[in-house]
Amino acid sequence: MKHLILFLLTIAFFSCKKSNKPTDTVDNNTPVALQSTVIASGLVLPWEIIYGPDDQLWITEKSGKISRVNPVTKQISPLFTISDVVSQGEGGLLGMVLHPDFNVSPYVYVVYNYNANNVYREKVVRYTYSNNTLINPNILIQNIPAGTYHNGSRLLISSDKKLFVTTGDATNAASAQQMNSLSGKVLRLNLDGTIPSDNPVTGSYIYSFGHRNSQGLVFVDDKLFASEHGPSNDDEINLIQKGRNYGWPNVEGFCNTSTEASFCAANNVVEPLINWSPTVATAGLAYYNSNLIPQWKNSLLLTTLKASKIIQLKLNDNKTSIESQADFFANEFGRKRAICVGKDGEVYFITSNGSDDKIVMVRPVN
């Protein structure tokens, strides 16, 4: 009887330990409590946030304004306003990225919408940072179709110094499958705007196609991940592969209907790693691997607009699949547009509510 009682107590002990596991933990590391701090407010529809080599936060606002924000003093310093930006619906000044060797090559790359002969378009422009302003605009690519909705517009530079650009279908869904259109694609450029000789199609900027509206883009080692808006269903996270078709508009999410399965088989379609139905409105992506927040290590951090939360997506060791997900800051601060990681492992995200938008810092409780 004594041994039976000890056995039952042991089972009860381990059952309690399992049931008390923190719900926001998807790692074996001991989680830390998190706190959020507003770094800046009074912004109007910011779209991009970058932690710069100068330890400043670089941000864009859709109206055309580029600013730097000191995360310590919380001072906002306007840097430059692009005069020909036309903010219309979801369009305006959107993505931005800094040259990886910024101290030697102080280039700032931006993508924005404008009018060309009264037709709404999109272009990528490289500026030079000098004396606290931007000079010498150099158009790298222009006349990309744009629309009131679905403009994509996340920029990213790879370790081999290629510029990646996401474009939306500009509400012309069929264009995502058309190789003579730059809509609904991931594009790959040399940093001077020329077409890389090793792109999948000779003489074309197109790197992958069949995208509806990708607004998040991040490299994890040599793997490229993108977040993509679905219609009313099937928001996606995709692992982007060179020259591959991602299905839109013929496929929504996985190839799980007979019609979709036939199209996928005939067109070598890549299925998403994960999808959400109903949609959460997937936006910015960052990769987190710092020890500061141990439960977030080896995870994608996804900002969402409609769902108004940050979703942690834990990657497997090979970084080829998503093992689990957890939600943070749901319904706090409203819609969340973009996210970045600071040099010490703290995380910054920006809101997209239309007025009094904020930059919020996340770090462990002191």
From TrEMBL:
Q: Which Pfam families match?
A: GSDH
Q: TM spans, by residue?
A: none
Question: What PROSITE patterns does the record point to?
Answer: PROKAR_LIPOPROTEIN
Domain Glucose/Sorbosone dehydrogenase positions: 45-355
| PANTHER family the record matches | HEDGEHOG-INTERACTING PROTEIN, HIPL1 PROTEIN
The name this protein carries in UniProt is PQQ-dependent sugar dehydrogenase
Origin organism of this chain? Answer: Pedobacter cryophilus
